[in-house]
Amino acid sequence: LRMKMLRFRSPSLRSLDQEIQVTIRLLDDSEISCCIQRETKGQFLVDHVCNHYSLLEKDYFGIRYVDPEKQRHWLEPNKPIVKQMKSQQPYTMCFRVKFYPHEPMKIKEELTRYLLYLQLKRDVYHGRLLCPFADAAYLGACIVQAELGDFDQDEHPPDYIQDFKLFPKQSLKLERKIIDIHKNELRGQCSALAELHLLQRAHNLETYGVDPHPCKDFTGSTAFLGFTATGFVVFQGNKRIHLLKWADVNKLKFEGKTFYVIGIQKEKKLVLTFHTSTPAACKHLWKCGVENQAFYKCAKSSQIKTVSSSNIFFKGSRFRYSGRVAKEVIEASSKIQREPPEVHRLHFGQSRSFNSLSHKNLIINMEPLVPALPSTNEYEETSADNGKSTSLPPLAISPPPLAEGQEEDEEEEKEEETSGVLTISELVYNPCASMLPTPVDDGQGGVDLLFQSPIQSPARLLRELHADPDIQAQLVAERVRDRAFERARVVGRSMLGSGLRLLTRNERVNTCVLSAVRLIAMVIGVLLVAVPMLLLLLESDIDVSFLHEIRQTPEFEQFHYEYYCPLRRRVAFTLYHVSVCSLLMLTS
Question: Can you give the pTM of this predicted structure?
Fold first, then answer.
């Protein structure tokens, strides 16, 4: 019998012991692999990577993956990995910075600063960390100094910066400025010091730590939402249009594809509404917001509460950030007493990112944060490569299509639009299209289908950049129509706004009225349920066991004979009297 039991249970034991291969791509594009079981939780992979690096300040980092619908997710540490992954085995994930330190100078160990440097270098290249021309040149020079060391006239030809594809837009003017700073300002700095200077300059930028989420606001305009150590930010075009500090954010919630930020601004309640392309993207946005708010706002992890996206009548989604908060991480860092671990740096030519940039695939990137215009010769060269005559800002080099299993890098390409910049690619692999959590086929309109405003379309901007007089005349006519359309929309919005102001002039009165209406609605709802049930007990003869037991209780009998029967007779007499009076009035 015992042998039969063992034989019966052996298949389930084998399924529990089945190993699953996981590949984790690190910040320097190297990869490590490990095997997990079906019940292994996400924290195991985080610990595995941190042990590989000998990293102690690990709370800033996380593991990210992309599902088959191209939606990115952060791996939750307290849930089994297999239950989170929707893709087929083997799994491929990426180790990335999840929470950017508010003050990088408080990082204790050089290893942690180096990993943050690698993340910021990726952010610069993928267009997430936008910066003015002077800051861009300085950041580029710091990267070159950290990778190559001091400038050497014998080793470095005049165009040596061209080997570094640092930015999605890299002009000759920018390269010359990087060379000048590398030659004169950074000489003598070791790699660690150059990386430290990059962290110091980068953390003061508006887009530092922003992981952009593409959305549309209530007007239908494209916006990019992000969460930083300071608070919730919104970028539109190439400007930051909202900054709501964490102390002023009361609640983050979502319903379907709609994301709400409820807070206080200038002592008034503020509700910001945005629409994502899919419900999965909206839920991911909400989770990122909940985690960032808990990490940067709370003083202790014990203060973190479970957050619900629901209202009173619907369950909704529940989520809780389970790690340590920023203040606890800084305190723990200050107590580290060990010998600093050795930092193994990958220099120029060893990273897959740089090797892949030898392909001459062009991306036209419009509306830079601060245009760095190249010379006329540069435009002529790019025109010859592109086959088109254009006066666009400088062209950038884009990576070629990635192999299967590299979805995370593919998702990073889509973030080149962090500042509202719309990128147009001529390649089969379109970073612009992959920006959407659910990719849109180019034959159906691509990104323009979801992120095109009626006033300013990418196609119109391209036409405007040409100098053909006929096209210019058409554009003038289009502008006249657009202005008329905009004026009509502004008039309609002002009329709607005046009506809303009349309705909300006295905010306290409106709040009290709304509360009273809700109370009346709830009372009516309770009565609609309770009264039929009571009549069923009092008037029906249904012989059901639980109804019979209720009727036999002394309390029910007392209520029936002392209150209900007199009330019923009173109501019957009143109805009879009213009916007799009405008949007499009719006959008279």
Answer: 0.62
